[in-house]
Amino acid sequence: MLSCFEQAIIEFSQTYFNEAHRLNHQEVAEEDKKLKLPSNWEAKKARLQWELEENEKKKECAARGEDYDRVKLLEVTASDAERWQRKKKKKNPDTGFAGYAEAQLRQYQRLTKQIKPNMEAYDKQREESGEDFYPTSNTLIHGTHVPTKEGIDRMVEDVEKQIEKRSKYSRRRAYNDDADIDYINERNAKFNQKAERFYGKYTAEIKQNLERGTAV
């Protein structure tokens, strides 16, 4: 027959074993739940938490009648602002010519950044157009829009700037009819031009002797 002390030890052991088994099962279930989640779940969760906090701060600022952007800027430290500025300077989206599609995309992004919307003209056009301002498949608006003189002047100015910029990219050499023909095709002509540019001053005398027929 077991003593009271031994019975207490057995009961304690069973209780401890049951609690450990429950906690272990709970941890296994949590781990299995995490494995079934997407790989970027932690990042999404952090993003959602940040958005909730931002919305709460915006509501608080609106209730106090304060501008949220100004309040947020006051929380930025000098070191953070300096680090962001250095990071911004290091960014160079223009990696050079890689293809016509990439060049067209960079030009589109550059032009859209220069656009300064005129909200007064926007509101005026919306009032004049009425329901046609938000066209549907049954709306006929072709030929109804007339651009303003200021808009045409901006377009002409931008086109002239593009032409001036393109003229600096590469300068087409004028063809000289009197130049000696020392090539057999266009590729050979390019090669001869490069050779002349780098070694012409060293071979000028030899070339003159060959032309006079006095070469030794």
TrEMBL record:
Protein name: Pre-mRNA-splicing factor SYF2
InterPro entries: mRNA_splic_SYF2
Family per record: Belongs to the SYF2 family.
Glycoprotein recorded as keyword: no
Subcellular locations according to the entry: Nucleus
Function in brief: Involved in pre-mRNA splicing as component of the spliceosome.
UniProt xrefs under PANTHER family: GCIP-INTERACTING PROTEIN P29 (PTHR13264), PRE-MRNA-SPLICING FACTOR SYF2 (PTHR13264:SF5)
GO biological process: mRNA splicing, via spliceosome
Keyword entries, A-Z: mRNA processing, mRNA splicing, Nucleus, Spliceosome
Subunit structure: May be part of a spliceosome complex.
Keyword Signal on entry: no
Coiled-coil ranges from the UniProt annotation: none
A GO CC term attached to the entry: post-mRNA release spliceosomal complex
